[in-house]
Amino acid sequence: MAHGLSFSMGGVPTLFLFLTRPLLNKFTALHTILRLFPTLLIVLSLHAPLAVADCECGYLSTVNGTSNSHHALFTDLLETDFTRHLTPASLAQDPDWARQAFNLTRERARGEYGEMFAVENVVVGSQREGQGGGGQHHGQEGNRQEGVQLLVRSGIVDGMVPVAELDTRRLDLFWGTFRASMRIARVAGTCAAFFWYFNDTQEIDMEFLTKDFNAANDSYPVNLVLQSREAAMAGYDAAKTGNFVKVNLPFDPAGDFHEYRIDYLPGQVFFYADGVVLAEMDGPAVPSSPGHLILQHWSNGNRYWSGGPPVEDAALTVRYVKAYFNSSLVQRQEDWKARCRDPAVPNAVCRIPDVTPGDSSAAEWFFTDRGNMTNNQTTSEQSKSSRMEGTWRSYAV
After folding, report:
1. Is the previous residue joined to 38 through a cis bond, with omega within 30 degrees of 0?
2. According to the UniProt record, where is the region Disordered (predicted)?
């Protein structure tokens, strides 16, 4: 069972740390309990020694709801900068992401065609040449690709459209803030999706239907969806529930990279584009389980959704994914308890920088590029020297 921990920290407004009971015990052991309610109110000492390492107690996110803003602290991190994948081999060996290979029949896909998910449709993007205007661009030195590309092919193979999916290997992503920098395909007839998934009735989606983009009237909608039991009873048509919103974006999502974000909190989900809240959903349709992240690009000819197939190969390009979350695994919770000596000391908690419409510099920021990150890096273990030489790496902290 998850609980909310509310506390103040040196000039930072009251924040909420969504933790399971074992993690709450960490704070009750360290600090004086002033008042016991469904949430625990704790005052942290502002006069404490420095943290042993940066971010050892977690990552602080600003949650910008439609009525008010608050802060949430998350214990774990998974950051991937896909521009550092220089070869197909590095993509295949990624420790945090797995390319998917499976087929869906026409009936299962609920379209005119089936879907053929193949690893060869997840590829290293083309080398970037210069910098365009208006969106996000990495300014770091060294060779970089545009990102990873998820391809939908124009040809039909055995009654199926060749499509692509990339999943996190970790399945323990509970409450968290999940962010992806993407450039959507220009070609009509595909569905590009960034979503959190537990099962078909606990799913949080951001889906882009390229057939609906219309430059003539600046129409660039994104579909925001909670798949739930109610949606399943309606034939997986969330539009027939209260958990489907179509929002027109103030920019062309195929023109450049933009950050799309999902905040998954107890009983609430917030959707963002470039740091601006697009919609808020709550109620029983909000998931209550851990899950994983999925990047997907597909088409099945369903004229009511993806349309297509596309007349030419179409690419969804993903520059990065940043996930800050609480793990559902007991071992990960114990790891956090061991390294978080005092969340009040300087640098023990790291504020997550946010992309905003007027400032995309946060797109360049990766905690895993810092030199004093906390110990207990559980994936992509490499020496500091290889890291500084520009070798791609991703951390789960």
Report:
1. no
2. 370-397
Instruction: Please identify which residue in the block is written with the tokens 């919609």.
Output: 279
Could you give the 3-state DSSP secondary structure of residue 32? coil
Q: What would the pLDDT profile of 238-256 be if each residue is shown by its tens digit? A: 777 889 999 999 999 999 9
Kindly compute the dihedral angle of the four CA atoms of residues 266, 267, 269, 275, in this order, to the nearest 10 degrees: -60
* Sign of the dihedral defined by the CA atoms of residues 276, 278, 282, 286, in that order: negative
Q: Which two tokens stand for residue 364?
A: 């360049």
Over the chain, what is the mean pLDDT? 81
Cβ neighbours for 67, distance < 8 A, ≥ 6 positions apart = none
Contact between 310 and 163 (Cβ < 8 Å): no
Residue 88, classed as helix, strand or coil, is helix
Provide DSSP, 203-235: EEEEEEEGGG-BGGGTB-EEEEEEE-HHHHHTT
Fold exhibited by the domain 78-323: Jelly Rolls (2.60.120)
Query: By the 8 A CB rule, do 282 and 245 touch?
Result: no
* pTM of the shown model: 0.82
Task: Compute the distance between CA of residue 30 and CA of residue 36 in angstroms, rounded to an integer.
Answer: 15
- Estimate the crossing angle of helix 330-339 against helix 21-30, to 10 degrees: 10
Helix-then-strand count for the chain, H and E: 6, 25
Tell me the backbone φ, ψ of residue 248, rounded to 5 degrees: -85, 125
Strands (DSSP E) along 82-172, which ranges?
97-99, 102-104, 114-117, 122-124, 148-152, 160-168
pLDDT for 64-110, tens place per residue?
A: 876 667 899 999 999 999 999 888 888 899 999 999 999 999 999 99
Collapsed DSSP state (helix, strand, coil) of residue 43: strand
Q: What is the pLDDT, as a whole number, of residue 134? A: 37
Helix, strand, coil abundance in the chain, percent, nearest 5: 15, 45, 40
* pLDDT tens digit sequence for 352-396: 999 999 899 999 999 988 877 765 544 433 333 233 222 223 334
Sheet strand arrangement including 58-64: 33-36, 39-43, 2-9, 12-20, 69-74, 58-64, 349-351
Give span(s): CATH 2.60.120.200, the chain. 78-323
